[in-house]
Amino acid sequence: MADEKAALKIQMLLEEAQVLKSIPDDFLRLPTTSANALQHQQQHPGGLMLNGVPYQAIQQHYIPPNTRGKLQIKIVSARLQKNYGAPFVRMDPYVRIRVGNVVYETPTNASGGKNPSWNCTLSTYLPTNIDSIYLQIFDERSFTDDECVAWSRVTLPPAIFNNETIDEWYPLSGRQGEGQEGVINLVMSFKEIDPNVIVQQQQMQQQLLQQQQQQILIDDPNLIDPELAAALEASKNETGQPPSIPITDEMVSEMTAMFPTVEVDVIRAILEDKRGDKQDAATALLQLSD
User: Where does the source fall among the domains of life (predicted)?
Assistant: First the structure.
């Protein structure tokens, strides 16, 4: 049971270390508060946000597991039915869009009112089990929480999976009712990933994991608890030992003829201890006879 527990810890630690080295620091970060998001937007005006931090285009060197392909979405503009801002004040809308477990936010269109425009594009990996995206339009507020004024769940158009680009207006829901809050314009396209690239990446990751398993104690032994360190050390020792040879009755009889005064069970036990090496077993039996 202890060995299984230690082995599980080894696998989890190695996988975590490799993934953290391979993906951006902002991957799947939890959304920050609206105040923090506003601060990021002020520091990076006009920039798309990913989970509350400045967005950067996805890197080609790492492809998450169970990825269907790369989805590109351009959030163009919206036509809303009502202005939910203060009297005589236009709304400051921005869009929050969720693809799988990743959340993106557009920059705020200051005073965009009922006809906001964003014209920003995001590129993200699409998981295999995701066939829709969820978006919300918020009115950014200065002294209170941002208000969600419209939302929609958009099913990905089947045509994008046939290398088509779809430019479409999608209905929005809100206080006015289901599909009655206005429309939003999205341009979507999809690109499949070469399966060979994924296979090569998995092979490379496996090689890196094996190298890490050999070096992890040397690189930073303080990160590992004593139980895990002992399991790793034992694993290294075991891999360096020659494979054992099955103990046959013929081997036992041969050793018994050489050492007739030693009990058969003792000879068999020594052969098993020496992993079937008759020379080492004979040396041990000589020492035992002396």
Answer: Eukaryota
Q: For residue 163, what is the DSSP state?
A: T
* φ, ψ at 168 (rounded to 5°): -145, 155
Q: What residue ranges do the domains of the chain occupy?
A: 1-23+198-240, 31-193, 249-289
Q: Is the dihedral of CA 232, 237, 241, 246 positive or negative?
A: negative
Distance, CA of 270 to CA of 277 (rounded, Å): 10
Contacts of 235 (CB under 8 A, 6+ apart): 10, 213
The two structure tokens encoding residue 31: 């959304």
Q: Tell me the pLDDT tens digit for each residue of 130-172.
A: 999 999 999 999 888 999 999 999 999 999 999 999 999 999 9
Mean pLDDT across the chain: 77
Return d(Cα 24, Cα 21) in angstroms, integer.
Answer: 8
DSSP symbols for 105-144: EPPP-TT-TTS-EEEEEEEEEEETT--EEEEEEEE--SSS
Provide the b/e sequence for 174-198 (b: ≥16 CB within 10 Å).
beeeeeebbbbbbebbbeebeeeee
Task: Choose the CATH number for 31-193 among 3.40.50.1700, 2.40.50.140, 1.10.10.10, 2.60.40.150.
Answer: 2.60.40.150
78 CB-side CA count, 13 A? 37
Rounded to an integer, what distance in angstroms lies between the CA atom of residue 26 and that of residue 11? Answer: 24
Higher per-residue pLDDT: 254 or 21: 254
Q: Which of 198, 156, 182 is nearest to 79 (CA)?
A: 182
Tokens of 234: 């034992």
